[in-house]
């Protein structure tokens, strides 16, 4: 085992461009992979490649890449929450408003260096929006027209969903607005679904 | 003063890790059964305590002691539960348990993508770090055991 990490290196800030570019490479690769999948199917059929097929293909790619990054985000989130709790010494939240505050002011700050604003509360207090003035993931990105269906930063949705699930909250997370797709701000909409109850494992006695 | 043993449970009740140092009396049942018994007791204590408390609680269950030993309990918001048994002379151990969580469990288990969460921990690195951490505690002393 060659792991030499210690707490001292943790405080060192990593260049965020590296993260942004790595994420960009990941999304690009996913889009390519899906192109290839389709390509194989279409190989014998190349002559019939009409623009309609191309559009259809890109639509599927966009959705598929979004779904995969969301799933990856989820897997990151279920681990990231432990790191977050260990570092921040934030305790259990008692309502969704407190959760919203912690996400925006502590978690986003810690991992992305930004503090989104929390707005648009539903009257029931079970739904709110995070407005991101800047999204570090998209620093160098311009969505080509043929990827207009790609939810580029859907990784973030997955991270939020996974992390909150680990603290017993089932939450629906989606992008409501995205500057990449021409909106004026980036808005992540979060909806509280239910509290996940902790059960005594079924014993064999 | 001494440390007897330490359990780590996940939120589903599986025992992720167990190690012992100065435990003179074994339970006389299989470890599997012991983990279930321990988790069941912790689960009941938590629910008992939250129902009995006349006020809203912040941290809930912290510790209990008998004539011979003291059980220290720490639970993270994600439901990871750390349980350490010591003798009676050891003061409040929440900081110690919190440290085990943040500097050992998170560092060597959560950040190791090869460690599957929710399964019994196989990492030798984690075990050896934990062992040296416990042995370095000011109240860990084999001599006094």
UniProtKB/TrEMBL annotation, chain A:
GO terms for cellular component: endoplasmic reticulum; Golgi apparatus; TRAPP complex. Keywords: Endoplasmic reticulum, ER-Golgi transport, Golgi apparatus, Transport. Its main location: endoplasmic reticulum. The keyword Transcription does not apply. GO terms for biological process: Golgi vesicle transport; macroautophagy. It is found in: Endoplasmic reticulum; Golgi apparatus, cis-Golgi network. The keyword S-adenosyl-L-methionine does not apply. Pfam families: TRAPP. May play a role in vesicular transport from endoplasmic reticulum to Golgi. Belongs to the TRAPP small subunits family. BET3 subfamily. Homodimer. This is Trafficking protein particle complex subunit. It comes from Cyprinus carpio carpio. The lineage of its organism: Eukaryota, Metazoa, Chordata, Craniata, Vertebrata.
TrEMBL record, chain B:
Transmembrane segments: none annotated. SMART domains: Sybindin. Coiled coil: none annotated. Keywords: Endoplasmic reticulum, ER-Golgi transport, Golgi apparatus, Transport. It is found in: Endoplasmic reticulum; Golgi apparatus, cis-Golgi network. One of its GO terms (cellular component) is Golgi apparatus. It comes from the Eukaryota. GO terms for biological process: endoplasmic reticulum to Golgi vesicle-mediated transport. Belongs to the TRAPP small subunits family. BET5 subfamily. Its main location: endoplasmic reticulum. Part of the multisubunit transport protein particle (TRAPP) complex. The heterodimer TRAPPC6B-TRAPPC3 interacts with TRAPPC1 likely providing a core for TRAPP complex formation. The lineage of its organism: Eukaryota, Metazoa, Chordata, Craniata, Vertebrata. It comes from Cyprinus carpio. May play a role in vesicular transport from endoplasmic reticulum to Golgi. This is Trafficking protein particle complex subunit. Pfam families: Sybindin (PF04099).
